[in-house]
Amino acid sequence: MIEQVVWLLSGCALALGCFFMLSGAVGLLRFPDFYTRMHAAGVTDTLATFLILGGLMLLAGWSLALFKLGMILLFLFFTGPVASHALARAAQHSEWKLPALKTRGEQGGATEPPTAAADVAEADALNTDRV
């Protein structure tokens, strides 16, 4: 009975982790600029990693694998946000210019959000003096 509950909890944690990882990947493709894409990737990556490794830790039981997974979880829990912060600071210090935000009226009533390729082209046009 307890074993079935552990399997159910770990399966739910693994499924939720995969869902958050997939939603982070969708966020990378759909968000308009570097900072929002980085936020989507950083937050969902940390949460998904926590859930996936937590589910695996439940399956591992009391063993050396539990300790190893815990150390990996602890390492990733601290390094993921630090890496996101370092990327944001590097973009800020390189004076990366963001495209101007447009309201719905300025877009001509467009219902579709701009594509990532259009945003990259606009940002590249703003940053032509950068190498």
Characterise this structure:
The chain has 131 residues and is mainly alpha-helical. The chain has one domain (2-96, 111-126). Helices cover 74% and strands 0% of the residues. Helix 2 runs antiparallel to helix 3 (64-93). The protein is elongated, with a radius of gyration of 20 Å. The termini are far apart. 11% of the residues are buried. Keywords: Membrane, Transmembrane, Transmembrane helix. InterPro entries: PhaG_MnhG_YufB. Residues 102-131 are annotated as: Disordered. It comes from Microbulbifer donghaiensis.
Show the helix and strand layout:
Layout: H1 2-30, H2 34-60, H3 64-93, H4 116-126
Helix pairs in contact: 1-2, 2-3
Give keywords:
74% helix; mainly alpha; 131 residues; 0% strand; PhaG_MnhG_YufB; transmembrane
Largest sheet composition = none
The rounded distance between the terminal residues' Cα atoms is 62 Å
Poorly predicted tracts of residues: none
Helix content: over 70%
Q: What is the helix tally?
A: 4
Quote the average pLDDT. Answer: 83
Count of distinct structural domains: 1
Total count of strands = 0
3D shape: elongated
Keywords: Membrane, Transmembrane, Transmembrane helix
Region (Disordered): 102-131
GO molecular function, one term: sodium:proton antiporter activity
Protein name: Multisubunit sodium/proton antiporter, MrpG subunit (TC 2.A.63.1)
